Design the sequence.
């Protein structure tokens, strides 16, 4: 004897299943950025020789202790590479500045590597 | 025919339907944040934009000067479990799709939009574009955004 209700039951299951909304989940992510203040230029320095130490991708400029560190406009190295405009963020000693920027990657393998001193010419705005 | 038999005949089928509807999912379906989207540090200059793509690579337009101070830029990371059919980013949710960053301790803002994504296995990476105003006030800017994972 056939079960007349079997098709109805299965149809009910199919309709209810199809009507269920697709599962979804939401997560909240965080986003951030840091804007660094530009340094006002008190004096214009041109072709000023400075001592540059390179270590681990960072470049440290030791500049004469006169005025605030101005905005670096270009940096050329003995390797002849890596001219880029970067921001100078003074850190610690007012006579020195840690300079980080896109040009640092071009100095990642200088000779000697990860250290040593170079005399370079820097230009400032 | 036994009246009781006639009464009970449809119930096995209906019970099967109920079991199918109530069957639990074979795998948990979740999305959790495991890393923030960071545009890193930069000097605003005359303004422009900073773009971090879904691989975490940073580029810029205009007069923005990226620096490495305080760590590098990173794409947002999410861990997704389950069979994903689609990912919905802020730019897919209707409206402008803009996310606002606000300066900590201030009211100045910057806009993030043009979100991009890359899904590999359970790892979802999200990038976006940040618009920087001319002489944007310095400081740390933060905000939040939602990402939705749609499953089978």
Sequence:
């Amino acid at each position: 004897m056939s079960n007349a209700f079997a098709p109805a039951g299965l149809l009910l299951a199919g309709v209810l299943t199809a009507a269920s909304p697709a599962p979804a989940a939401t997560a909240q992510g965080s986003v951030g950025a840091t804007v660094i203040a530009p340094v006002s230029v008190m004096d214009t320095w041109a072709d000023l020789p400075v001592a540059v130490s390179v270590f681990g991708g960072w470049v440290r400029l030791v500049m004469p202790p006169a005025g605030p560190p101005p905005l670096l406009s270009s940096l050329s190295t003995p390797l002849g590479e890596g001219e880029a405009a970067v921001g100078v963020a003074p850190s610690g000693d007012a006579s020195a500045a840690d300079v980080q920027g896109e040009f640092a990657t071009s100095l990642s393998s200088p000779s000697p590597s990860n250290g040593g001193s170079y005399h370079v010419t820097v230009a400032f705005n | 025919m036994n009246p009781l038999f006639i009464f009970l005949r449809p119930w096995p089928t209906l019970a099967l339907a109920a079991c199918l509807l109530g069957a639990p999912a074979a795998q948990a379906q979740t999305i959790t944040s495991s890393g923030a989207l960071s545009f890193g540090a930069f000097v605003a200059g005359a303004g422009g934009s900073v773009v971090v793509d879904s691989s975490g690579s940073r580029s810029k337009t205009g007069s923005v000067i990226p620096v490495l101070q305080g760590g590098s830029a990173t794409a947002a990371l999410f861990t997704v479990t389950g069979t994903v059919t689609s990912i919905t980013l802020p730019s897919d949710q209707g409206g402008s799709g803009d996310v606002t960053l606000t300066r900590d301790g201030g009211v100045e803002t910057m806009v993030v939009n043009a979100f991009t994504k890359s899904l590999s296995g359970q790892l979802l990476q999200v990038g976006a574009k940040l618009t920087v105003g001319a002489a944007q006030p310095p400081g740390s800017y933060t905000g939040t955004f939602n990402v939705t994972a749609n499953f089978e």
User: Anything to note?
Assistant: Chain A touches chain B at residues 3-6, 8-10, 12-13, 16-17, 22-38, 57-58, 71, 85-87, 89, 98, 100-102, 104 (CB under 8 Å). Chain A has a mean pLDDT of 46.
